[in-house]
Amino acid sequence: MSSHALGATTAPTTTATVARAVNLTKTYGTGDTQVTALDAVTADFARGEFTAIMGPSGSGKSTLMHCLAGLDAATSGSVLIGDTDLTGLSDKQMTALRRDRIGFVFQAFNLVPTLTALENITLPLDIAGRKADQEWLDSVVTRLGLRDRLDHRPSELSGGQQQRVACARALAGRPEIIFGDEPTGNLDSHSSGEVLSILRAAVDEFGQTVVIVTHDPRAASYADRVVFLADGKVVDELRDPTAESVLDRMKRLDTSAVPVTEKV
Ligand SMILES: Nc1ncnc2c1ncn2[C@@H]1O[C@H](COP(=O)(O)OP(=O)(O)OP(=O)(O)O)[C@@H](O)[C@H]1O
Prior knowledge:
Blueprint (H helix, E strand, L loop, with lengths): L16 E12 L6 E12 L3 E5 L6 H8 L7 E6 L2 E2 L5 H11 E5 L10 H12 L5 H10 L15 H14 L4 E5 L7 H16 L5 E4 L3 H4 L4 E6 L2 E7 L3 H10 L12
Parallel strand pairs: 3-8, 3-9, 6-7, 7-8
Antiparallel strand pairs: 1-2, 1-4, 4-5, 9-10
Helix pairs in contact: 3-5, 5-6
Adenosine-5'-triphosphate (ATP) binds next to strand 2 and helix 1.
Pfam families: ABC_tran (PF00005)
Keywords: ATP-binding, Nucleotide-binding, Transport
Protein name: Putative ABC transport system ATP-binding protein
C-alpha cells in the first residue's frame, strides 16, 4: 500500500459534516392513501465516519438514503452534500454531483456484464471524462484483493468478488461519501464480512465517509454509529455498536418511541 493512500483525506470541502439532512420530509400519494416515508428527519454524517441506518421495514431507511444521495427528491426540507444544497439543483447539476462526489454500492452489485472488472471499476471515471489516479487505483485494487481478477467479467466472479468490484468502483473516483443500500444483502456471511471489512478500511485507511442501510446487526457492528429510524423519524442512535447492543436496541425499538432527532 502506498503512503499516498494511507490516511488520505478525500473530501475537498472544508466542513466536518459531509452529508446533512435538515427537516427532511417525504410523502407519497395524496389524501387517504398518503404515506409519510420521512417525517422531518434531521441527521448529520461526519467526515471519516461509518454510519449504519437501521429500522423496521417501511421505516424510511431507503427513502432517507436515496434523498441524501440525490436519487430521490424530498417533499420538503433540504439535503446538503458538503456545502452544496441539493434543493434546487437542475437535473444536469444533480447528475454531475452524483457522478463526481458520491460513490454507490447497491445490493444487486449493478456491474455491467460485458465489461471486465477493471472496466467496471473505471466506468464512472470514463463516463465523466476523468483520468484515474493510477496510484490511488492501484492501492484500492490491491487493498480489495482484486489484482488477479481485473480481466474477469462479472459472470466469472463470485458474489463477494463482484461486490468488491462494486466497492472499488465506488472508491475509484475518491468521492466525498459512499452510500451502500444493503450492500451485503445478497452475500453469504463470509463475503459479507469481507465487504464490510473493506468499507471499514475505506474509512480507517482512506479517510472515506460511508453510510449504509442494513437489516443485519452484525453488519451494523462494523459502523461507528447506528441511526435508528421508525415511522419515518430518527428515534435512536448508538455509538460504537456491537451486534448484541444493536439487536437489543432493535428489540426495544417501538414505533411510539420519542424522537431524538436533536441527538443526531
Ligand atoms: N414509490 C413509492 N410510492 C409509494 N410509497 C412508497 C414508495 N416508496 C416507499 N414508499 C413507502 O414509504 C415508506 C418508507 O419506505 P422505505 O422503502 O424508505 O422503507 P425501508 O425502511 O427502506 O423499508 P425496507 O426495510 O422494507 O426496505 C413505506 O411505507 C413505503 O411503503
